[in-house]
Amino acid sequence: MPAKAACAGGGEIMIYYSPVMAEENKSSLDALSALAKRRGFIYHSSEIYGGMPGFWDYGPLGCELKQNVKAAWWQFTVRGREDVAGLDATIIMHPKIWKASGHLDTFADPMTMCKDCKKLMRADQIKDIYAEQRKKPQPKVPGSDFFCPHCGGELTEPKPFNLMFKTIVGPIDDPSNVAYLRPETAQAIFAQFLNVLATSRQAVPFGIAQMGKSFRNEVTPRNYIFRSREFEQMELEFFIRPDEAVELLHGHVVTLADNPDLNGPVQDDWGWEVWHKYWVEQRKKFLNAVGLPTERFVEYWQKPDELAHYARACVDIEYDFPFGRQELEGIAARSDFDLTQHQKHSGVPQTVFDDPLKQAAKKLDDAAKAAFIAKVQADWVARGKDALAAEKFCRDLFDGKYVPHVIEPSAGVDRLMLALLCEAYEEQTLKDEKGKDDVRTVLHFSPKVAPVKAAIFPLIKKDEAQMKFARDLFEKLRRKVNVQWDVSGAIGRRYRRQDEAGTPWCITVDAQTVEDGTFTVRERDSMAQTRMTYEQFLAMMYAALEF
Ligand code: GAP
Questions:
Q1: pLDDT of residue 220
Q2: Residue 113 has pLDDT above 90, yes or no
């Protein structure tokens, strides 16, 4: 059934809108990127010089959207919790950090080159490029199944290509001065772990969050802002006790089999797998809150043979982008790998002192301690680890010392922005008052991330009283949220401009406003208009913006 909505002129238009149509109209990347360019969301970097592959700029609406996405993440992850502290570290750090983290030796993609057309590409993406092509070229070497997807030419043997951007620090261009632009924000969190612990009045379990630029010299940046060479990440390293410490402290470890309540307050006796699942659920809640419905993304639990050697579990949250289902963000249980690596490479112990743990251990007699060690040794040996190391680890636990383990929810700002744009974009076919088809392009952003929260329209420009009221309202509101002022064209055209920007509310000041102070608020998705006072509008707006 068509929905009804009041139109600006006071009559009614019919909206022929159904879920099926919304599905059909889901953005193609071309239509979306055209709108994003036209309305000032996203531009090619350095466009007047022909652009730079893998680099994108955000225009007036794009940078507002980006700020809102980041602010929402910070509110949800840091300020809204008592157990997470923030960090803002440098992009260039000591190169030894990247040796310790493994990025210097292993952060590489397999690169191949076509011997004929000289195009470079990632060997592991060639199948995807074949799949995307309507007409794939025939191999120039008959019978070959590994050939250039662009011209059919012969490809070179794939070689690892390190993705870190190199730079020189200081005036002397010497290998000893080589440094790297960070390929992830996470490592600075590990490198500053002890400082934050000492200055934040936090104790394990607690998290450190950081957001900011990361750089990867991607061989083939693809799919608009999905895979870029310069992008932003929002990462949380949430430090937890090793399960053995939880066991010692509480006499048990809560696992998923115990069916813990992941929606209630966090619990001190949770083991790593509960913490991991808890953060998967938190991330899904966040994605819902900023406008991605649960049914639009899937959890992909990496299989044991897909996991990095130090990881105990890793979940990718995948979204159905117009170019296929792809990773939006990941939540990894990384054991104590990172802090242990930095301890080894820096020589600075990364252990914490956990007094409740030491007090719990004091209560054990020698027999109980020996039984505890034997149990941990059996578990470690079954996981291919060393029995002597297990004993040393247990004796440190008895002293209240351990290297914390970590759960890492890691998200890309730009990738989330792309998902939000894809999710928000819709072309609706409406009927105008004469019954003619009229296409409305609208971005259904959640008010929490919408670049502009409200637009103010005086109905009649020549009416001084209306103009004054509208201008005063605009000045009052702009001190609170991002609002736009628009006096040009018919009200219907002004609505459409704001629909394309994703503005949730349009406020029209008319003759009645001057008499009684109420104005019409037109809601973007339903197009319904309601008369409200300023106070009523503020209450409604703040309720929609709150997390
Ligand atoms: N610290 C863990 C880490 O960096 P990752 O899976 O390599 O893990 C995390 O990256 C997130 O960062 C990804 O899920 C994605 O959202 C974003 N990301 C990674 N590479 C990106 C790129 N080249 N362009 C845009 N976003 C990227």
A1: 86
A2: yes
> Range of 389's domain?
355-399
Number of domains in the chain: 2
Point out the domain boundary residue: 365, 380, 399.
Answer: 399
Pocket test of ligand 1: the residue of 415, 416, 420 to mutate, having most ligand atoms within 8 Å of its CB, is 415
Q: Please check whether residue 314 is in contact with residue 330, taking contact to mean a CB–CB distance below 8 angstroms.
A: yes
Pocket flag, ligand 1, residue 286 (CB < 6 Å): no
Token pair belonging to 391: 């004993």
317 Cβ closer than 6 Å to some ligand 1 atom: no
Task: Tell the residue nearest (CA) to atom 6 of ligand 1.
Answer: 330
Nearest one of 542, 411, 521, 435 to 473, comparing CA atoms: 521
User: What pLDDT sits at residue 143?
Assistant: 80
Q: What distances in angstroms separate CA 457 from CA 8, 444, 472, 485, one per listed residue?
A: 12, 20, 12, 7
Among 50-54, 139-143, 191-195, 419-423, name the one with the lowest average pLDDT: 139-143
Give the HSE-up count for residue 506: Cα atoms under 13 Å, Cβ half-sphere. Answer: 30
pTM listed for this prediction: 0.92
3 state DSSP class of 382:
helix
- Please name the residue whose Cα sits nearest to atom 13 of ligand 1: 329
Q: Is the CB of 330 under 6 A from ligand 1?
A: yes
Q: Whose CA is nearest to atom 14 of ligand 1?
A: 329
Euclidean distance between CA atoms 107 and 128, whole angstroms = 21
* pLDDT at residue 129 in the model: 81
